[in-house]
C-alpha cells in the first residue's frame, strides 16, 4: 500500500522522481498482487476456509492500489527483475520492446542505447544489471555521463558518454503495458586500442650469450604481439609472434634494432623498439702490402672489425712504433688504422705488424713495405707462378728437341 509518510527523507534520485508530490512510502502486503501464497497442508486449508466463512464480509479496500507513478515503476521493475523471467526479444520478433543488437564502441567514445516501443507502453526504464539508470524522463543514475536522448511513443534512448571498460555489460529496456512487464536486453562491448605497457630496455651482451626480450601489451580484444629484426634486409629478419623473443647463442650479425608491434585492429598498432649490442673480439678484415720507391710517400693500412671498437698498435719486427716518430704518422679512425711514411728510405722497407685489441681479445696481421722489383710473399705470388710455368715449359721444350 502507498501510505503518506511526510517525515521520512528519501534518497535524492527517488525524491526527484516523486517531486512535487509529498514523500510516499511504498509497501506491498505479503504475497499481495504477486500471485504467490504460502504453502498450507490440508488441515490448515480446512481451518482457513472455516474461519473465512465465519467472518462477516469486509468492504473492499482500494487503499492498497499504488496510484503514484514512482510506486508503479519500482513495483514493475522489481517484479520484472526478481519474479518474472521477462520476454526476451529474438531476432525477427515483432513484439516490443525491441532493443538494439550488441553495441560496440571504442574506449572514450559515446554509446547510444535505443529501445523501440509503441503506444501500448505506459511506463519505460533503462537498467544496467539491477541498477535503474532512467525511468521515463527521470534520471535515477548519479553518473553525469548518462543522459537521455529520446523519449517518444516509438523510441526510448539513452547515451553513455566517454565510455570506459567498466561500462561493458548487459543493459535492459523494461516496459509496462497492460500491467504486464516486458524486457529486452542489449550488450555493450567496449574496445580498447593496443598499448605496450612493458618492454625490455636496450641491452649489451657478448657473442654466444642467450637473450630474452619481453613486450607486454593490453587492449580489447587482446592484441597480437610481434617481434621483428629491423637491422637486416627486407625478408631476411626473423619474426616471432609472442610476447617473449628468445635468442640462443647470439651472433654478431643478430645485433641491431628489434621492433615490438601490438595490434588488435581497433586502432593503429603500438610500436616500440629495443636495441641489442653484441660484443665480439676484433678480427682484421683488410691488410694490404704496399710497394713504393725511395723518396716517395708510402701508406700501410689495417682494417679491423670489433665491438667495442678495437685499439690499434704498430710494430716493426719486435719494436713498437710510437706516434709522432720523425718521418711517419699513425692515425686511427674508427675501425681503420694507417701508418704513413712521408719520405720512404731504404731503412723503412721491411715487415710491419698491425695489432687490434679490445676487452674480448686481440688479433694481428703482417704487412710489408717494399721497394720496386721486390718479391714479396702474398704480393707477387701470381707472378712467381707464371714464371715457374714459363721455366717449366722452356725446360720441357729443350728436352724434347734434344731427344
TrEMBL record:
Gene Ontology cellular-component terms listed: plasma membrane; side of membrane
Q: Which Pfam families match?
A: I-set, Ig_3
Any idea where the Ig-like domain is? 97-184, 194-277, 281-368
The membrane topology noted for this protein in its Swiss-Prot or TrEMBL record is: Lipid-anchor; GPI-anchor
PROSITE patterns given for it? Answer: IG_LIKE
Which domain of life, per UniProt?
Eukaryota
Q: Principal place where this protein is found?
A: membrane
GO biological process annotation, one example: cell adhesion
Q: Which UniProt keywords apply?
A: Cell adhesion, Cell membrane, Disulfide bond, Glycoprotein, GPI-anchor, Immunoglobulin domain, Lipoprotein, Membrane, Repeat, Signal, Transmembrane, Transmembrane helix
Ranges that cross the membrane: 70-89
Family membership: Belongs to the immunoglobulin superfamily. IgLON family.
Q: What is this protein called?
A: Opioid binding protein/cell adhesion molecule like
Organism of this sequence: Sus scrofa (Pig)
Gene expressing this chain: OPCML
Amino acid at each position: 500500500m502507498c501510505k503518506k509518510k511526510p517525515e521520512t527523507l528519501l534518497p535524492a534520485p527517488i525524491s526527484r522522481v516523486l517531486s512535487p508530490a509529498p514523500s510516499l512510502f511504498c509497501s506491498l502486503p505479503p504475497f499481495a498482487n504477486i500471485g504467490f501464497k504460502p504453502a498450507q497442508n490440508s488441515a490448515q486449508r480446512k481451518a482457513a476456509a472455516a474461519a473465512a466463512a465465519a467472518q462477516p464480509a469486509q468492504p473492499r479496500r482500494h487503499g492498497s492500489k499504488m496510484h503514484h507513478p514512482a510506486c508503479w515503476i519500482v513495483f514493475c521493475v522489481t517484479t520484472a527483475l526478481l519474479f518474472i523471467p521477462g520476454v526476451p526479444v529474438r531476432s525477427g520478433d515483432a513484439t516490443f520492446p525491441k532493443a538494439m543488437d550488441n553495441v560496440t564502441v571504442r574506449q572514450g567514445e559515446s554509446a547510444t542505447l535505443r529501445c523501440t516501443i509503441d503506444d501500448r507502453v505506459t511506463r519505460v526504464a533503462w537498467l544496467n544489471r539491477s541498477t535503474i539508470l532512467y525511468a521515463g524522463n527521470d534520471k535515477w543514475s548519479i553518473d553525469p555521463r548518462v543522459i537521455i536522448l529520446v523519449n517518444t511513443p516509438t523510441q526510448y534512448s539513452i547515451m553513455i558518454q566517454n565510455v570506459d571498460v567498466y561500462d561493458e555489460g548487459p543493459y535492459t529496456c523494461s516496459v509496462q503495458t497492460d500491467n504486464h512487464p516486458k524486457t529486452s536486453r542489449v550488450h555493450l562491448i567496449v574496445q580498447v586500442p593496443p598499448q605496450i605497457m612493458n618492454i625490455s630496455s636496450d641491452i649489451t651482451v657478448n657473442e654466444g650469450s642467450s637473450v630474452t626480450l619481453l613486450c607486454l601489451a593490453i587492449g580489447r580484444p587482446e592484441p597480437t604481439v610481434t617481434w621483428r629484426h629491423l637491422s637486416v634486409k627486407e625478408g631476411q629478419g626473423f619474426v616471432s609472434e609472442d610476447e617473449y623473443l628468445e635468442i640462443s647463442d647470439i651472433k654478431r650479425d643478430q645485433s641491431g634494432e628489434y621492433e615490438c608491434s601490438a595490434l588488435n585492429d581497433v586502432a593503429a598498432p603500438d610500436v616500440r623498439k629495443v636495441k641489442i649490442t653484441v660484443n665480439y673480439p676484433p678480427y682484421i678484415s683488410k691488410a694490404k702490402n704496399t710497394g713504393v720507391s725511395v723518396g716517395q710517400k708510402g701508406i700501410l693500412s689495417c682494417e679491423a672489425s670489433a665491438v667495442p671498437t678495437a685499439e690499434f698498435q704498430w710494430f716493426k719486427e719486435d719494436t713498437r712504433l710510437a706516434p709522432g716518430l720523425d718521418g711517419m704518422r699513425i692515425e686511427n679512425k674508427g675501425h681503420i688504422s694507417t701508418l704513413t711514411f712521408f719520405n720512404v728510405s731504404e731503412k723503412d722497407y721491411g715487415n710491419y705488424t698491425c695489432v687490434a685489441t679490445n676487452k674480448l681479445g686481440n688479433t694481428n696481421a703482417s704487412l710489408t713495405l717494399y721497394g720496386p722489383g721486390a718479391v714479396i710473399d702474398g704480393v707477387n705470388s701470381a707472378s712467381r707462378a707464371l714464371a715457374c710455368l714459363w721455366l717449366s715449359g722452356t725446360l720441357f721444350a729443350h728436352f724434347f728437341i734434344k731427344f
